[in-house]
Amino acid sequence: MRRLLVLVAAAMLVSTGTAAAGEQVIGGERASIEANPWAVYLTDSGGAQFCGGTIVAPSKVLTAAHCALGRSPRELRVVAGREDKQDRGSGVSVTPADIWIHKQYVSADEGEDVAVLTLKSPLPYAPLPIAELTDRALYQPGTPLRALGWGRTSENGKTSRFLMQATVPVLPDDYCVEAYPQFVKTDMFCAGYDGGKIDTCQGDSGGPIVAGGKLVGVTSWGEGCARRGKPGVYVRLSRYAKDLHPVVDALPTGVVGS
Ligand code: 4AZ
Question: Where is the Peptidase S1 domain (predicted)?
Fold first, then answer.
């Protein structure tokens, strides 16, 4: 999460000046895991964090397809209940039992950038519900959304040790198309400020962007981070509710319902 100058008055079309050298506040604000218990991160088997995710049911974690593609469950770990990556005494690190990737997924900027990890047993942390088709209001331009993650705190910097958060408004679809010719309005939304400065970044992918107690989007792609005129692009989750429900609502294999 990158946050240079918080001179942002209201919405997205307000241009904020240029930060003088040395004046930048790099790094979003800290967020607690207690207030955001559904926020998780993904690591490889060596413990290196590379993506985010969200607990959407007791044994289901939603992430980006590009975070899961080409990986086998055994080389993945879901770390839940841990705000500080160095605090190995908190939370749990579990290997998923199964990976589901949207059938139409090709690349993040073509859409369908969603995947669901099924865990062997339920996590002791509260899930966050996914936005539905009826949650259209959450995608209106100007709606303030809160993105969370352990990603980079500057475009070429290191990922964050602590969970960070930043608030970014939804931008009009036409703005996103202008910024990115390949932007697909039905499958994506973009969020941020015209002047850049506050954004998600590498390592935040797969993680949550939330509003109104719902998971509105999944951090997906963008050109660089926090650049002027290059907002972050997120999966428009309401569009995928139908595809996700059967996967998210299914009990983990081997668990017998009553
Ligand atoms: C990434 O590579 C990534 N500025 C995530 C978010 C954004 C760009 C890239 C948005 O994971």
Answer: 25-249
Q: What is the pLDDT of residue 2?
A: 55
Q: Which residues pair with 212 in a beta bridge?
A: none
Residue type at 75 in one-letter notation = E
Q: Give me the domains of the chain, ranges plus CATH numbers.
A: 18-33+129-238 (2.40.10.10), 39-127+240-248 (2.40.10.10)
Task: Tell me the per-residue pLDDT of 67-98, one tens digit each, with 9 for 90 and over.
Answer: 999 999 999 999 999 999 999 999 999 999 99
Which secondary-structure segment (H or E) carries 66? Answer: helix 65-68
Task: Point out the catalytic residue in the list 160, 205, 220, 238.
Answer: 205
Q: DSSP characters for 199-238?
A: E--TT-TT-EEEETTEEEEEEEE-SSSSBTTB-EEEEEGG
pLDDT in tens, 9-60: 333 333 333 332 222 233 479 999 999 999 999 999 999 999 999 999 999 9
Is there a catalytic annotation at residue 66?
yes
Helix, strand and coil content of the chain, in percent to the nearest 5, comes to 15, 30, 55
- Ligand 1: residue whose CA is nearest its atom 3: 202
Looking at this protein, which amino acid is placed at residue 234?
Answer: Y
Asked whether the predicted pLDDT for residue 255 surpasses 90, the reply is no
d(CA 98, CA 78): 12
Tell me if residue 93 is catalytic: no
Pocket test for ligand 1, best of 113, 180, 204 (most atoms within 8 A of CB): 204
**DSSP code of residue 142:** T
For residue 59 the two structure tokens come to 């044994």
